[in-house]
Amino acid sequence: xxxxxxKRGAFILLEGVDRCGKTTQVSLLVKHLLSLSIAAVxxxxxxxxxxxxxxxxxxxxxSVQTDDRAIHLLFSANRWEAAPKLVDTLxxxxxxxxxxxxxxxxxxxxxxxxxxxxxxxxxxxxxxxCMSSDVxxxxxxxxxxxxxxxxxxxxxxxxxxxxxxxxxxxxxxxQRFAELQSIDEKQGRIPWHVVDASQSVEEVQARIxxxxxxxxxxxxxxxxxxxRMWG
Length: 231
Ligand code: TMP
What we know:
Elements: E1 11-16, H1 22-35, E2 40-44, H2 51-61, H3 68-80, H4 83-91, E3 95-99, H5 102-111, H6 127-132, E4 142-147, H7 150-155, H8 167-187, E5 192-196, H9 201-221
Parallel strand pairs: 1-3, 1-4, 2-3, 4-5
Helix pairs in contact: 1-9, 2-3, 3-5, 5-8
Residues 18, 45-46, 60, 75, 100, 104-105, 108, 164 line the site of thymidine-5'-phosphate.
């Protein structure tokens, strides 16, 4: 009926290691949805346009030693500051296609090794510690993980100059993502779809489009409430 509340949008998250093609696929997916007259908007984290995001940007582009926990909390704060708008966007019926989120936050921080770290606070950056600052954030309806092994990633051209663009770290990041996938699978709330990102842009795009049409359908037929991260 005319008085029924509009269906909420789906929160679709693309994650993966650096150079897996996430950013390209996020923009192709948004265009694809819009071409079908499905309301969609791209989000990305870190969102470097805010004040917090400006600090993150400076950190990523410098080699100045900064406490790893403080940086981790900035990345997390950058998601929390976006959360109200994100929730509102979904409530208005617009789908969100998001480039990185809390999984990147945990995977990157927890992949740092004690010997690489300058942190005064020392100690291991455990998965649990890293996850805790994101507990309660709006949860994606699904994670689409673009999987690419390290050799393939490096074939795509050298990394840029940002501080995380190093082989050893990237390999540990990929491992952390796998751990986060298995945590979500045990909880049984946030489904993961792993896509082989070594295929052509078109093949990856087609695979993602198929997955996403199912996600959107599920969110619209379910009376699915938006979930919360890791609660
Ligand atoms: P970008 O290349 O997608 O802009 O991301 C910049 C870097 O920030 C990338 O190496 C991944 C890293 N990152 C974190 O360390 N923590 C986070 O929470 C996020 C979202 C990204």
